[in-house]
Specification:
- It is a single chain.
- Helix 5 (108-118) packs across helix 6 (126-139).
- The protein is of the alpha/beta class.
- It has helices spanning 5-20, 32-38, 58-61, 81-94, 108-118, 126-139, 151-172, 175-183, and strands at residues 46-50, 69-73, 98-104, 187-193, 200-204.
- The longest helix has 22 residues, at 151-172.
- It has a five-stranded mixed β-sheet.
- The protein has a single domain (5-204), classed as Beta-carbonic Anhydrase, Chain A.
- It contains eight helices and five strands.
Length: 208
Amino acid sequence: MTTTAREALDRLREGNRRFASDMRSAENLSSLTRRAELVTGQQPFAIILGCSDSRVPAEIVFDQGLGDLFVIRVAGNIVAPSQIGSVEFAADRFGTRLVVVLGHSQCGVVLATLQELQRPDEAHSRNLRSIVDRVRPSVESLLGSDLAGDPDRLVREAVRANVRVSANQLRHGSEILERLIEGDGLQVVGAEYSLESGIVHFFDGVQD
């Protein structure tokens, strides 16, 4: 039976509450039985497009186990063709109906992009610059606002702006995902993980 987007979101919220309160479930730890069950297939209940930051492993912060989440990690939780293809694969193949773009506080790639916009640096490699360039459009306009005088708030808003742009790219950058959104209950939401509190806040595209 397919897990609905709402059911999946509730499950993630419950798991994150356990994680943030240091009450992780023993049921979600790896076991021989669970490994055996997954040999012949998988049916993850949520797709997570998150940052590669070592402090934000999705399975841990949502207190989930083997086979529960289809996780795609890339620095800055950016959206490029390979990430879109990975989301398409899971949503279409496994019937997963919730996609979460998961950013986090103090994201290094967002910080690097803001620094690049303020003080261009030619030292970046071509590959790193390709990541920064994907973040740039989502945060560039913030530098011309009143946020420029408040560095901490600027970073917070830039992290969320980057998440919103990535979520929007998934909603409108794929014919497959658009079809599943319009007719099959797929939902794409944006969220931010707090390094300080351990809490994930869902703030974009959430349908209550």
